Structures are given as structure tokens and as C-alpha cells.
Amino acid sequence: MRRLQSNMVSDGAFIFLIIVCFVCIVFTAGNPNLYIQNIIFLNLALLIAIVTYFTNVTTGLILNILFIFGYGTFTLYQTVVVGGVVGAQNYFWLIMTPLFTISTWLLTYGNRQLQLENEQLQKANKSLATVDAKTSLKNTFSFQSDATIFMALSVRYHIPLTLLVFSVKYWDEIRRIIGEEQLMEAVLDLSQMSQTSIRTNDSLYLLNKENPMWGMLLFTDRPGASIVIDRLRNSVEERNRDEYREKYRVELILKMGAIEYDAKEVPNPLEFITLAKKQLEFDV
């Protein structure tokens, strides 16, 4: 409903501004004797409208007050000194210039409301999204939900659960060597490679996208996770010989750590990640 109102304000203000421009152009062209004078006032009205667009309505109203004061002084000079007659010409720009300002402000207001709503929707989408758009992997938000369920299953049915996390060694140095596009390709390649190394009932997550770190929830004990670790290392080493070194000009070396779930030591999914990340420090 709020978005619809913003659209109506923006569209209505745009149409109103077009109508005001049309009326001013017709009025200016309708009196050749005052053509130069009307062009000057039209330019002033447009200038005030532009300033209002890039600032705020208060600035526009102040400029309109100054314009009305200046135009009133000009009209008084023509009437008293020159001996002119006050007619429709004298009132037209006193009305149309504020209308220019109001229509421009309404247009600006509507556009800013739409931009604000768009930013809020983007933030909400990022916070609620459970899958990374580029790698199609579940993210930390999804991990918290899944890990809570898996941890409960592990306790109830006495099934061993291990979190394996891994990242790329020397990622900051690699970032300086290859471009941003190849960085995302490397993340995608490693994600696809990791998916082929786990069973269908295990889950893979992209826990950190900026400084890539993956997580695997494995229904196995710590020795069983070591088998997956060896499998991942061998897969990366094979690809380093055949593909990665040529494609990225560097070797991609994994840094891995794993920790088995213990209900007494791991109260929540985020602590599970923290403890698993500490194991990375021992993989040198």
C-alpha cells in the first residue's frame, strides 16, 4: 500500500510538472511583445525548480519568496515609473513559479520514497535469503536453521554430527593477483568440487562470501570427517595440476578444520561455527 502511494505521488507529480511546463510555454509563445521577458521568468522558474530538486522544499520556498519580492518590485517599477498597467501578465508568473517548485518537490519526494523502499527491500532480501544467488549454496542464515535441527537429532538418536569448515590459504594475496570476476569463479569452482565430495544427506554451506569459508554438516564422527578432509585435499591437488594453476595462475590450497558436536560444549549453531573456525588455526 505504501509503495502504491509513492508511485501515485511520483507519477502524479511528473504529469503535473509536464502540464505546468506546457502552460508556461503556451503563455510565453502567445505574446510576442513580451517574449524576452517571459523567457527570462521561465528560466528563473526552472532554475528554482532545479535547485529544489537537488536540495529540499524549504530552499525552494525561500527562493520563491525572493522571486515574488523581486518580481513585485519589478512590477511596481513598471507601474509607477514606466506607467505600465497591471494585467494578467503580472500575476501569471507569481502563480506558476511556486507551482513549478511544488510539482518538482512532489516528484523528488515520490522518487526518494521509492528509493528508500527499494533499499529496505534489498536489505530485507539479503537478511532473509537462505541461498547465495551465484553459487546456489545455503548461507549462514540457513545454516543456523538446519544446524538446530541436526543438533537436536544428534542428541535424540545418538548420531555423531561433525562440522567441517574450510577456506583458501593466502586468499588476500590471491585477491591481489586475480581479478574480481575470477575470484567469484574460484568460489564457484570450489563450491561445486566440494558438493561432489560429500554424501547426499550431508549439507554444504557458504558461511562467508567476502573471505570465502565453507561449512559442511556431516553425519559422522571426527575420524569420519578426516576421510572427507583427505578427499577434498586430493580433489584440489588434482585440479591444481590440471586446471586451477592454468586458470587462476595460482594454486588453490585449502585450510580445513573440523569439530564433533558435543551438546555440553556447543550451545548454539554460531558457537559451533566459532569452535570449528578455531580448528583452522591448527591446519598450517
From TrEMBL:
The chain crosses the membrane at residues 12-29, 35-54, 61-85, 91-110. This is GGDEF domain-containing protein. It comes from Paenibacillus allorhizoplanae. It comes from the Bacteria. Keywords: Membrane, Transmembrane, Transmembrane helix. The lineage of its organism: Bacteria, Bacillati, Bacillota, Bacilli, Bacillales. InterPro entries: Rev_trsase/Diguanyl_cyclase.
